[in-house]
Fold this sequence. Notes:
By secondary structure, the protein is mainly beta. It is built from 2 helices and 11 strands. It has a 4-stranded mixed beta sheet with strand order 4-2-3-5. The protein starts with 6 loop residues before the first helix and ends with a strand.
Amino acid sequence: LLPEDDAATVVLGSDYSIPTVADWKELRSQCYWVWTKNYNNQNVSGYIVYKAKSAGDKGIKVYYDGTPSVSYSLFDAHIFLPTAGHYNVSRLYGLGGFGDYWSSSLNADYGSGSLNADYPSNARYCNFHSSGVDPYFNSDRCDGRSVRPVKRP
């Protein structure tokens, strides 16, 4: 996305941006993910994404009703990704059931791997629910999906 099209950059300034697909892939593979139905006793479901304590923890996902194999707590470095669902036209879908978070990456042509100039209104997003995390979905950019900004160094 161009900076003027990036909601995180526009609202928070030039140090921030919407993550790319590569950023979502890195988060998925380098962190320890734990599903919760009740984050911080607020009755909100989603993933607590911890900074991995060891190389063996990287990429681990503890899904619905799973028990973390190592000790992580809310005192450890983490972010929370709530299941905010998404808007399509004027209706909210999936609130409390799944999360859809935009990337700044436009949809690529599956065959060539290059940007698909025929569909610039289409972008990638990360979808997750109690049993999976997938950063490879795509949709029309006019759909209402969540934004989780990242701060660039």
